[in-house]
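re: ur question from the group chat, yeah i did fold both. here u go
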Amino acid sequence: MADGTSKIGPAAPVQALTPAGINHLVINVRDIEESHKFWTDVLGFKEVGRSSRRNMRFYSGDHSGRMNHHDIALVENPNLPKPPAEWEMFDMPVAINHIAIAMPNREAWLRQLAWLQHKGVKFHRRVNHGMTHSLYISDPNGYGVEVLYELPREVWGDNIQGALDFVENLPTEGEAALADDTHYPHFGQVPAPAAE
């Protein structure tokens, strides 16, 4: 630099860097005990810690047999409005549309669906997307929760748009809600643009 000092640190990039992904999610809940029961007893997350400063709890999924510092955290806010009586995918008066929870594989996902049905959890939607097979339920605050397993990458390949556009709605009650077809449609490569 002109004054004889050197600049410390890297130069700013020309654009924002792409993150590795979402590290954790913190949600406000009306009743922390009610939400704790949902996230642990219903969805299976493990509590890994509590804040000593606020009514806040931290939860982890299974990361190859180890716990994470937290994947999700709950903060009690009793002033939140009561959620609507019925959950819908769109036009709900809550800030979070849905939170997607990945099961490690298809077998674990099927067992989780059977567990949720056994617990009497209402299945709002059962959907085969082009990149996941999914169940939509809702938490006590009206937030949607998608429980899914990822389809193999070769199913959707590089055609993310094709996989996003694919939706197959399935039954939400009885044995039919627990069925899973593994004859996945394949989307493959995105067609190359036509030569001009």
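okk and heres the other one u asked abt
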Amino acid sequence: MTESITGWARRLASPNRPAVRGTSVRTAAELILRLAGVAALAWIGYLHLWLEGYRQIPADGPLFLLDAVAGFGLAAMLAAWPRPLAGLLAAGFTAATLGALVISLSVGLLGFDESMSASFVRPALAVETLTVLVLLSWTALVAARLQRPTGRRQRVPPGRVSQPVR
């Protein structure tokens, strides 16, 4: 009755198109959420101010560049490979970016203290929070649509046809 974790993880990361069940409304909602996630990840990549002077910060500067590249890369990955694992990776990245901003606002990060009065802080907080919610919602919808195998297959000698065990 219970499925192994490895089987579940394989379906989440499978390069094959998943067998799905659901309605066209649900499919449309998934597409809208995925496209919103892709756009938000690209916006996060743009928002991280590498060209606006943050590259001058000794320790944090290269991290802003890495964040921008990762945002665009994950947006491309989610657009090209719409699998739950891609959504989880993108949500984790966005949550880490949001966490770094909150730490920088509260106690400082690698010697840099961000201020709420900085021009892009409030939009970054809003976009990153919404992005995490959108990506997790999309991932949950897609993962719920993946069909579980209907039965276990018996091992049979080569040349024989196997039948599902019921």
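fwiw on the second one: The mean pLDDT is 76. The helical segments are 5-13, 24-47, 61-80, 84-106, 121-145. idk if thats what u expected
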